[in-house]
Amino acid sequence: MLGGMYMYLIKKVSEISGVSVRTLHHYDEIGLLSPRKNEHGYRYYTEEDLSYLQTILFYKYLGFTLKEIKGLLKQDESEILPHLKRQLILMKEEKQRILTLIDTLEKTIESQERRITMPTKEKFKGLIFQDNQKYRQAAIDMYGKAVIESAIEKQKGKEQELTAGFNEIFFAFADNKSHQLEADSIENIALAKRLHDHLCKYSFDCPVSTFKDIGYNYVQNEEFKEQLDQFGEGTAQYVCDAIVEYVNKNI
């Protein structure tokens, strides 16, 4: 203790938090969480530092990068409480998603054991398109912050309708793929048009040439590809091929 304040050396912090000493050194190097020095030159962490470390770990769990976390913590260095309240909301959303995934997994096991065909939509409950932080950052990297922020503003109050529309379209693509329809079939070209119209209505006025780029990005960008392939392996490529065919017919 120092003047009534608890001091934790780096090894003890590592034991308490489960974060390696090497990682704590890295946090120090990038200015995310730096220990203090006492009069003898020993580096130590305080209870407040441990609270910051907890906040960092919650943000990491929620998919934020270290760079993003550093920016978030700098917004109001004196207050951890707003971050904790925000994290609680995000964690409750994550909890609901996990409960949905557990329910989906239980139903899948039951259908396998009883040899019952599970409806396509039931298979993917919890494994659906969602506007998570990683997906949003990937969109910003590709289309620019101004375009994405404008789209977010346009979507306010319509998030559920937006997501439901994407899921319905991507489920339909996955269902067509499972029935071995060609990606460039009439049915899939019609779905590509629905997707294009949905983007224009809820995101931004998307020219067909840009829509084609979006189709390619569904495959080339790992974040987009991972999202779509949750509907079934190869869905991203399948949707991309349908979009390209749709665009080629409308240029």
TrEMBL record:
Residues 7-75 form the HTH merR-type domain. GO terms for molecular function: DNA binding; DNA-binding transcription factor activity. This is HTH merR-type domain-containing protein. The keyword tRNA-binding does not apply. Keywords: Activator, DNA-binding, Transcription, Transcription regulation. It comes from Kandleria vitulina DSM 20405. InterPro entries: DNA-bd_dom_put_sf, MerR-type_HTH_dom, MerR_fam, TipA-like_antibiotic-bd, TipAS_dom.
